Amino acid sequence: MARMQKNVLSPFANIQKAEDLISPEVVKWFSQLPDYVLDKQVLESTLDVAVVAANTMAEQTFTITGLNTTQAVEVSPPALTSGLFYISARISAANTLAIVFNNTTGSGITEGNAVFLIEVTEK
After folding, report:
1. Cα-based distances in Å from 13 to 9, 10, 20
2. What is the DSSP letter of 109?
3. Which of 3, 12, 28, 114 is the most exposed place for a label (fewest CB within 10 A)?
4. What is the number of other CB atoms lying within 10 angstroms of the CB of residue 91?
5. 8 Å CB contact between 99 and 45
């Protein structure tokens, strides 16, 4: 025997635009959001990472034109050699990126040229 289905309306059937679903205050908040979003820029840079001595944490500096100390920075390193770890990054001076690496092995590691993504945010 065939079953009869009820005609069920979607709870969203009468929604024509976002304002029908979201309060005017929320719509206003979203419209003003671009005024408060920080200015971010993502750079891709090939950095020549020097040797990091055995069982050492060392800071190395790299020249990146356009950086200044009023900016915040986050670095996304590539896959590094086993035992070599990226620890932190900062803008130490105008046009200078400082990155701390940690070598946890018993011998020095020379990473050489590696492509890093660098996210710079204006404060």
Report:
1. 7, 5, 11
2. B
3. 3
4. 19
5. no
Return the pLDDT at 14: 62
Strand partners, 84: 103
Nearest C-alpha neighbor of 82 from the set 116, 106, 59: 106
| First-last CA distance in the chain | 69
Q: Which of 33, 34, 42, 32 is nearest to 121 (CA)?
A: 42
Greatest CA separation found in the chain? Answer: 80
Give the amino acid at 48: D
| Cα 91 to chain centroid, rounded | 15
What are the tokens at 106? 């018993």
- Could you give the domains of the chain? 39-122 (2.60.40)
Q: Convert the pLDDT of each residue in 61-101 to its tens digit.
A: 999 999 999 999 999 999 999 999 999 999 999 999 999 99
d(CA 12, CA 117): 42
**Which pLDDT tens digit goes with each residue over 15-55?**
666 566 677 787 787 777 766 667 889 999 999 999 999 99
Q: Report the residue count for the chain.
A: 123
